[in-house]
Amino acid sequence: MxxxxxxxxAVTGAASGLGRAMALAFAGEGMHAALAxxxxxGLKSTLNEVQSRGVRAFAMRVDVSRYQExxxxxxxxxxxxxxxxxxCNNAGVSPLGAVWENTLADWQWILGVNLWGVIHGVRAFVxxxxxxxxxxxxxxxxxAGLISPPGMGAYNVxxxxxxxxxxxxxxxxxxxxxxxxxxxxxxxxxxxxxxDSERNRPRELLNPAKSSSKEETMLKKAVASGKLSADDVxxxxxxxxxxxxxxxxxxxxxxxxxxxxxxxxLDERAPRxxxxx
Length: 277
Ligand SMILES: NC(=O)c1ccc[n+]([C@@H]2O[C@H](COP(=O)([O-])OP(=O)(O)OC[C@H]3O[C@@H](n4cnc5c(N)ncnc54)[C@H](O)[C@@H]3O)[C@@H](O)[C@H]2O)c1
What we know:
The chain is α/β, with parallel strands linked by helices and 277 residues long. It has helices spanning 17-28, 40-51, 67-81, 104-132, 153-175, 214-224, 230-243, 255-266; strands at 8-12, 32-37, 57-61, 86-89, 136-140, 181-185, 247-248. It has a single domain (8-198, 206-276), classed as 3-Layer(aba) Sandwich (Rossmann fold), CATH 3.40.50.720. Helix content is 46%, strand content 12%.
């Protein structure tokens, strides 16, 4: 989509980090904004900042793991603005640990937000984009959707699935002759609230006895040390939407690890640890 001014962006996970930065970047392009998150104070603050850019916007408490809430968000955006054009399925969380140590609650929580959240966004919004013959879907995956670092298997599973879902969505839209575009965002570490995502875990999916792990300390350090800011990543997303670019790899240095994984697969050898390359 070359022309963004006056169009409408819908963003999940808009209260913090990359979602907040994307909402502000699209508002900076003159787009109106529909903002969703479970964090209501954070949403309010993003809403105020977006409105201060002179565009129309609303914010809604939406748990993306619940289809009915995503559908209501989509309906409200269409009721308010008449259409949506850029849909960012971005909300995400990151419980850590070895795959056999993750509790069923961990799996349910992360699959619900990171994968079902994207499925719900696609299911609610894409038929409307198809019908209007215009739009662009941005699914936030991660480099963890292209490589599989140790200690975060559940996260890797959801992000590989988001990459596969996005590639499939792209092919399906092309087969239907639709002009609707797709991008999959695959950043490496960016300083945001992601290493503190336990703050948003629903009570019914808590791990009662779990204490902070070595992996959590390492993730916090890695995320905090990220060289690109959320605003840098949001700028890359805006450019990808305008250029209709599918893969958005914001951190070129990680490409060596992606290439190593592809070579390991094609050479049929055991996977090298991407963090040790
Ligand atoms: N920060 C990074 O290093 C990094 C790298 C690669 C990918 N990502 C991905 O970027 C996306 C955004 O994360 P971030 O880094 O900005 O973290 P963040 O914690 O700053 O923002 C995530 C947002 O998602 C919201 N959220 C959590 N559960 C939700 C739910 N059930 N329904 C609706 N909203 C919910 C949170 O309240 C929060 O506002 C995630 O999908 C994450 O996996 C982040």
